[in-house]
Design a protein that fits this description.
Blueprint: H1 12-72, H2 77-95, H3 99-125
Length: about 140
């Protein structure tokens, strides 16, 4: 019976390829991570822009609701505090904190906004024909 010696050593050619393969795999991993990060950042920026637009639209809507309520029937302490926060947030986000710019915008838009809110409140307050019951 003949004994065959088994060696744990790899041939020299395969061991010299191992660092190159590891380096290549690491480079691919870095590129994939970088591509993912770029795509994630792009996606995040676009969703932040959409979110910022929605927040700004909501702030304007809340501002006009507060302005209309304060002008027509007044607001309570809690509602007034909330309206103050809305006012400050809108002034900061839309006008960069510039009171004069906000005042000019308010003067230009107040009549139309109040008219629209009055129309909505009349529609909500007025009963519809199918809701009227006779006794």
């Amino acid at each position: 019976m003949t004994r065959t010696a088994i060696s744990n050593q790899c041939p020299a050619s395969s061991t010299s390829r191992l660092p190159a393969a590891l380096l290549f795999a690491a480079a691919l991993g870095c590129l994939s991570a970088q591509t993912y990060a770029q795509e994630s950042a792009r996606s995040s920026r676009s969703s932040e822009l959409v979110s910022a637009r929605q927040v700004a639209a909501g702030l304007e809507k809340n501002f006009w609701a507060c302005d209309y309520a304060a002008t027509t029937h007044g607001v309570g302490l809690q509602e007034g505090a909330m309206c103050g926060v809305v006012y400050e947030d809108l002034k900061r986000s839309k006008f960069g904190g510039d009171f004069q710019a906000m005042l000019s915008w308010w003067q230009q838009n107040k009549a139309a906004e109040h008219l629209a809110l009055a129309a909505v409140s009349r529609t909500v307050a007025a009963p519809k024909a199918d809701q009227v019951t006779s006794r």
